[in-house]
Specification:
This protein is an alpha/beta fold. It has a single domain (about 5-160), classed as Phosphotransferase system, sorbose subfamily IIB component (Fructose Permease, 3-Layer(aba) Sandwich). About 35% of the residues lie in helices and about 25% in strands. It has six helices and nine strands, in the order βαβαβαβαβββαββα. β2 (about 30-35), α2 and β3 (about 55-60) form a beta-alpha-beta unit. α3 (about 60-70) packs across α4 and α4 packs parallel to α5.
């Protein structure tokens, strides 16, 4: 029972993740990977409150997650990895947390971002990180919920930015 889902979602844990993805993948463990949240007791408390009690929750840094992946510490339970942005996924990958596929979920609007899909807004840093991940062979697919059809984010980026 390996990592069943690696997902970019800037809200991290919320209803769509807990009800849609966690139930669909029969998640036993959710891992929030974010350097800042590991230092924020209020955020950690809120994520623990939002996670069903039957699902284990870990909140770790990118470096810790990479070591856990390398050490195969997620092999015993159906595990979902959650990260806020593509740059964090690329840092995880380059630190040794090799992952083969990433689901791109909510990336909300902020200044200097443009829309690729309904709830996917990216800036130049996001585009750069997505392209680096794709160059490493990581499959990048957009789906808000498990029942959605998969969409190719690199194709959408190339249509918007050119190749």
């Amino acid at each position: 029972m390996p990592i069943t889902l690696t997902r970019i979602d800037d809200r991290l844990i919320h209803g769509q993740v807990v009800v849609g993805w966690a139930q669909s993948f029969r998640a036993e463990h959710i891992v929030v990977i974010n350097d800042e949240i590991t230092e924020n007791d209020m955020q950690k408390f809120l994520f623990r409150m939002a996670t069903p009690e039957e699902i284990e929750l870990s909140i770790v840094t990118i470096a810790q997650a990479a070591e856990m992946i390398k050490g195969r510490l997620f092999d015993e339970k159906n595990t979902i990895l959650l990260l806020k942005c593509p740059e964090d996924v690329y840092r995880l990958y380059k630190t040794g947390g090799k992952i083969g596929e990433v689901n791109v979920g909510g990336m909300h609007f902020s200044e200097n971002k443009f829309q690729l899909f309904d709830a996917i807004f990216v800036n130049e840093d996001d585009v750069h990180a997505f392209r680096l991940l794709a160059a490493e062979g990581v499959v990048l697919e957009v789906r808000m919920v498990p029942t959605d059809a998969k969409k190719d984010i690199i194709k959408a980026i190339n249509e918007k930015y050119g190749e």
